[in-house]
User: What shape does this take?
Amino acid sequence: MRIAEVIGTVTLNRWHPSLGGGSYRLAKPLSLNELTGQAKPSGEPLVVYDELGSGIGSRIALSESREAAMPFYPEVKPIDAYNAAILDAVRVQSPHHD
Amino acid sequence: MDTIMQIGLVIGTANATVKHPSLEGWKMLIVQLLAADGKSPDGDPLLAVDSMGAGLGERVILTSDGASTRELLKSETTPVRWTVLGICDE
Amino acid sequence: MFVAKVTGSVVSTQKVKTMVGQKLLLVEPYRLDEKDRTKLVTTGRTFVAVDTIGAGEGDFVLITQGSSARLTPETKSLPIDTVIIGIVDTVHVDNGCVFSRNE
Assistant: This one.
């Protein structure tokens, strides 16, 4: 899992019948410098399936690829990014400042 | 799926109240994988589940082995990929 | 997942047996405009995706990539890694609308 910051929401007009129930968030994965506030979040956001109710500005645990679909096992859903946790506190000490 | 073992530096911790049930009761570490020079970050920091009691500034071995993650967390449906396999002596 | 625009379809008569009957579309991933975060812009990349929900040219769609693309009854035995799983209605960023299907 990576840490990502939620910046928006995506709604669907139509979806694969196995989906539904969750909502879709736009989120940017954070690099070390972005996490420590030394750089502004940049890079392409991705769309994350969210069952936990994250909001704009939430920092989430972003599960990707095959693991992202594991919460639905043995059902299958074509999900490659999943919100595994809404983080209350993130404490980071940059290794460059040791 | 390929299993990968990596060495990373523990740079922080994260807490969550609202989370997938398989994360209940586990400590989450923030681990930065390092490039070949042993200093520069390689990729984004990762969230890893820790059962070893690793601390800030320690180097840890991470594994992405799905079977051992499911066994450790006692969950067939966990979205977790990385768990701490060991703490490096130095 | 990510948002992409359907830019065309692909017709292939000679293809592996498992792909017979599969609808293939050309898609172009879009990203948030870095500067003013008020619109989606093309990434300039393009690739082929399997359509499971009846998307058409001009639609903005949601795409899943990697092994998760095979996690549907329609695609589970296909040699594919990119699938269209939804048609996008709206995209909001920082509480402002950056894409709406009806505009």
